[in-house]
Input
Amino acid sequence: MSADIFEYSPAPESRAVVKLQNDYGHFINGKWVAPLSKKKFASINPATEEILAKVSQGSAADIDKAVKAARIAYNKVWSKTKPRERSKYLFRIARLIQERSREFAVLETLDNGKPIRETRDVDIPLAAAHFFYHAGWADKLEYAGYGENPKAYGVVAQIIPWNFPLLMLAWKVAPALATGNTVVLKPAETTPLTALLFAEICQQAELPAGVVNIVTGDGQTGADLVNHKDIDKVAFTGSTEVGKLIANSIAGRGIPATLELGGKGANIVFDDAPIDEAVEGIINGIFFNQGHVCCAGSRLLLQESIVDDFINKLQSRMSKIRVGDPLDKNTDLGAINSAAQLSKIRELSDSGTKEGANIWSAPCSLPSKGFWFPPTIFTGVTQAHRIAREEIFGPVLSVLTFRTPQEALEKANNTPFGLSAGIWTDKGSKILWAAQELKAGVIWANTFNKFDPASPFGGYKESGWGREGGRHGLAAYIKGAK
Amino acid sequence: MRIDVMKTYKLFIGGAFPRSESGRSYELKDKKGEFIANPALASRKDLRDAVVAAKAAFSGWSHATAYNRGQILYRMAEMLEGRSAQFISEIKALEGVTEAAARKQVQDSIDLWVWYAGWTDKISTTAGGTNPIAGPYYNFTMPEPLGVIGVIADEKESLLGLTRGLAPVIASGNTAVLIASEVRPLPAISLAEVIATSDLPAGVVNILTGSKSELIPWLASHMEVDGIDISGAEKKSDVEIKKAGVENLKRIHRFGKEESLKRILSFMEYKTVWHPIGI
Output
């Protein structure tokens, strides 16, 4: 009965604001160009499986063309553009994203499957904020602590994932341009459309041709970009597996890489935590963006004395998560980004059951078309289970328990990853102690999944190399900076 | 005529001076071809023991106060000063340089230990900070030591190379496994004697002598080693070392002769902490 209280009428956001072309070329040297491969592939809406548009499959020849354009733009234009002018281009881009934010939000939701509530309130505003923040750095780099005459690398190869398409573009492109580099960007295979809309923003901002080049394609296109002889730096966000392939292929080539890779974040709830807030934080930590978040709090560590009460509250809250049409403004959990990702989530979820953990999924009806997975938790998980060790990258939470704070930290750090962690307690000294002991690059205490352009983001251990955002993130694009 | 008491040059692992578990040693000669010593030829097992010791020492050393670490590094400079003569004679014999050049190298090394001693409690202040978040959150970033760092020190100026490699690594709270120069290992082992008398906790620095080409691949692929300073490895081995380090994404860096905060930060990791502000 009580569930009825939360029935909402449909409140779909109009998609009329988005005007898609039937097919797209690459964006190279300020112009749209047909792929030399002559091959196209479809980008679909994962919530409905409808084809949104055809995009170009980038080949090694397309990549070469883009890198050449970026090289010429760097040598002839961008490296000679005064920092103050560079800065103003970035401010322009920030403003243009803000002006067209609704269009970006709807398109991102269509292409990615994430709820409009998130693209509208998180992805797009943060993307604009990243450009605004870095715009201000462009003419103040000598104050950033990397020497009096900080130098750009030159041409930067950037490869971004499908979970936050435009936001990850902003995390990559904004600092690269601010520091005076030119860019060849390869968006994710399943979510290229907002990057292609961003190309229009570059045109509207009158950004000099070749400063930003966008080549769409699959993993092979990304590999061709990394392996191109004339790039000066690689920046990649994606899986640890691919990150290692990149590290391997650039070994000895004398070019550096920034790698933002996988995670298996521990969200630790101590018995003196504010329980209701913690429940809300755990929900946000794992179900935000369908759990397609490298820093997701995918392992919940509960102190034994509060387990039963906490799990009850968590299940009750999970039952109220609204799963469905991503364009509906009331939707909390959208579609899984692709069929491939859905089968990976299912495979790992099945392994949890097979290995003896107890599965519980929120009762919800899933749409018949598209790719969907219900909010799910596993209890009775041990550290040996695959669901406690491997990144699921979906709305699946693994619950482990502990008796002492020391045991909690031991378990939290027992992973090759080290991207994020959460701490829930009302005791200040315990927060600082746990924050000190956790081997992770981002620690959220009594909050989770918060992002800001001024806050450095990046991982310890196998979660990657380097930081993005803040003063520290600039180092990734300044020659020799650390 | 009195017969000299010759020193047995051994490894330095976990604060102790063991021979190689393999029982191996190799003959070391001076520039004139005269026999000097039979240093230990460390094995893969010795390397693993050294990593275990370094790993065990990490928690204590990284939790020591920065002030305390600074005092211990300064103490190393004091001990080096007192043993200058010993280092000068070893450098002369192995590098074939003049007394004056050897003395200068020892003095530069002492001064460099002092320089890094003064850094320990200024790293966070200069490299960390608070971040202005667009929301009611307190947010700060601080550098933290990585863990176990392999040091392959530059050996052209043997003692100075050791100092350039080791001091920045341990100043921040890392622990180290040092692979000494194959042909100039004596200053490294004598430095172990300095370390042993400077209150540096056992295992913070571990020193192996032997064949670089044998030891480096094991160091590069060891999953408990978090980073490597490869300044003293042959440039042509960079690819091999970096590829071996991919499995746990080691932080691998090569430096020149510079003394810098960058050298310290290269083996540190930034941690950012968020907390809401409110009543």
Notes: The CA atoms of residues 152 and 478 of chain A lie 5 Å apart.
